[in-house]
Amino acid sequence: MKLREPATEPALTETYVQLTRTVERLHRRHLDMLRFELDQLGIQDVSAAQVLMLTKIKEQSISVRDLVERGYYLGSNASYNLKQLADCGLIEQERAAHDRRSTRVKLSAKGKALCAKIAEAEERHARAVAAAGDGQALSAACQALRRVESAWGDYIRGA
């Protein structure tokens, strides 16, 4: 016996579509904010997407494969960006001892300094958002987006 899916109200569908479009615009706006911060710091040899990648690495030594999976980057795009970050001296790359085909990356001192400046900027942005509205609404929005992310993951896995 196959279970019927509940009917979706048109208003709910419209809200869902608006949410997905807003998430996309929000990501683009976040990259704009990172570009602005890079401009303020006088940094022009790194893109906002590359800085976002740096912030995923943090204090760890991580395999390129894990970085790609956690950051949802395309493999070739990640490889290009990692090469650029290495050329700029923001990351260090090394072959994994147990598997010479695998590469691990970690932040260099220069990369850590840039991430610290970006973290300071994100703290300023968070304070500005909180000052402009309700901090509880921001927390509720984050929880709702995590539930949507989880629902999408369940859907893809066929759960």
Explain how this protein is built.
The protein has 159 residues and is mainly alpha-helical. The protein has one domain (34-157): Arc Repressor Mutant, subunit A, CATH 1.10.10. The protein has six helices and three strands. It has helices spanning 10-40, 48-57, 64-71, 75-87, 109-132, 135-157; strands at residues 62-63, 91-95, 103-107. The chain has a three-stranded antiparallel β-sheet. Strand 2 (91-95) and strand 3 (103-107) form a beta hairpin. The radius of gyration is 19 Å and the shape is globular.
Helical amount: 55-70%
Instruction: Identify the CATH homologous superfamily.
Output: Winged helix-like DNA-binding domain superfamily/Winged helix DNA-binding domain
Q: Overall pLDDT, averaged?
A: 87
Distance between the termini: 17 Å
Structural class: mainly alpha
Biggest sheet descriptor: 3 strands, antiparallel
Tally of individual domains: 1
CATH architecture: Orthogonal Bundle
What percent strand?
5-15%
What gross morphology would you assign? globular
Q: In CATH, what is the class?
A: Mainly Alpha
